[in-house]
Amino acid sequence: MKRTVIIDALKSTALNEPIHVCGWVRSRRGNKNVSFIALNDGSTIKNIQIVADLSKFSEEQLKPVTTGACIGATGILVASQGAGQAVEIQLTDLEVFGTADPEKYPLQKKGLSMEYLRTIAHLRPRTNTFGAVLRIRHNMAMAIHTYFHEHGYFYFHTPLITASDCEGAGQMFQVTTKNLYNLKFDENGQIDYSDDFFGRSAALTVSGQLEGELGAMALGKIYTFGPTFRAENSNTPRHLAEFWMIEPEVAFIDKDELMDLEEDFIKYCVRWALDNCMDDLEFLNQFIDKGLIERLRSVINTEFVRLPYTEGINILQEAVKNGKKFEFPCNWGDDLSSEHERYLVEQHFGKPVIMTDYPRDIKAFYMKINEDGKTVQGTDVLFPQIGEIIGGSVREADYDKLNAEIERRQIPMKDMWWYLDTRRFGAAPHAGFGLGFERLMLFVTGMQNIRDVIPFPRTPKNAEF
Ligand code: 4AD
Ligand code: MG
Predict the structure, then answer these.
(1) Which of 156, 207, 245 to mutate to test the pocket of ligand 1 (most atoms within 8 A of CB)?
(2) pLDDT value at residue 37
(3) Residue 81 and residue 444: Cα distance in Å, rounded?
(4) How far is residue 380's CA from residue 382's CA, in Å, rounded to a whole number?
(5) How far apart, in whole angstroms, are the C-alpha atoms of residue 403 and residue 407?
(6) Dihedral over alpha carbons 119, 125, 130, 136 (to 10 degrees)
(7) Which of 61, 96, 407, 432 could form a disulfide with 249 if both were Cys (CB 3.0 to 4.6 A apart)?
């Protein structure tokens, strides 16, 4: 018989008809007369209840039906007498696909810690929490593609292997086929890459932006959505060494339009979650973060604050004057640390903040320099609990200014003639941003640690699974 997925079975009105479902056993309980099997197949957070009449099934037959086992169940769909579900299945045929030894299966108990679940990341998708997170993750990806498609953007594929360090932070993972124990060196003692796979040094990308800009200079509006890599030794709940980034790049927009896009886009994604993932959000709201749904609703209904960096510093210094203690200083020119961002977002304004016009020396080389010569047109979005969720900017489109900035920073640009060409041939004003997909996931799920919103996290000293 054809399999019905459990999300459909639970909604079915074909009562007293035969039905066939498959899935993993969440629990089995019962008495002398009946056994109740809670079955989940991942299509929804909800289980379907299978009722086995012990006059038709022996204990021996049901013995392999333990938590974690995989079964196929055929039976009759009936209205449920019990509370909590509209329908259940009266079992007529049972097939056991795979047993799960109760002595050994690690997901027996409820309430396992997130830390422990990370050590069994190969099995944790079978928990309610990770099932919910992963279904929402899929939905966020669909929201992102739909948003851009509906707004006339083209999905542009930028390379993962590159020779350029977009953010200039020196956090790239090298890609080589060379024997690291037998390297060749030139007369200056530098590694000779001429016989390496690409004939030059290469690395995993930290951002698709530079190539994305090339796309925008031809297609007008593009976005990327792919993995990015940072060899950043940050052991925090908000950093991964491999994370997914969404990077739209748009010709002919200015700073205000860029901020409009950032705000509209995030709100669209959050609204999508509320419209499409309510079962999973309700679960997370109950068990992970009691304020989650309310916070999601409030974000789509508030206007984000737009705050120049200089004003932000004034607010922080005023707070310090009034007795607020920060661990790090906050003088003009300092990069804000997360305590500062959180103070502004969570305490001072109580809503998301788009911070603009940062000092040029704390931002990347490609940002458009303001008239004052001191600040650049960055537009980062800061979120409650998350901190920076988006990093964006208007790009410097003027060849001379960009070139001067590159020289001032002593960036080795000889290999980036192609990037400068966009400023030599048909240069256009343009802007874009990068949204950290897992940071968005943190916000939308209420999860506390970025390691728990991606199936297999990559962090310093950890590349298991
Ligand atoms: O602010 P970032 O470094 O900006 C860029 O890479 C630009 N090239 C983007 C652009 O304008 N096209 O990174 C963008 C976002 C951050 O705001 C943050 O959400 C996320 O990427 N991010 C990380 N997420 C997880 N782990 C890390 N190590 C991250 N580093 C950045
Ligand atoms: Mg940033």
Answers:
(1) 245
(2) 98
(3) 35
(4) 6
(5) 6
(6) 140
(7) 432
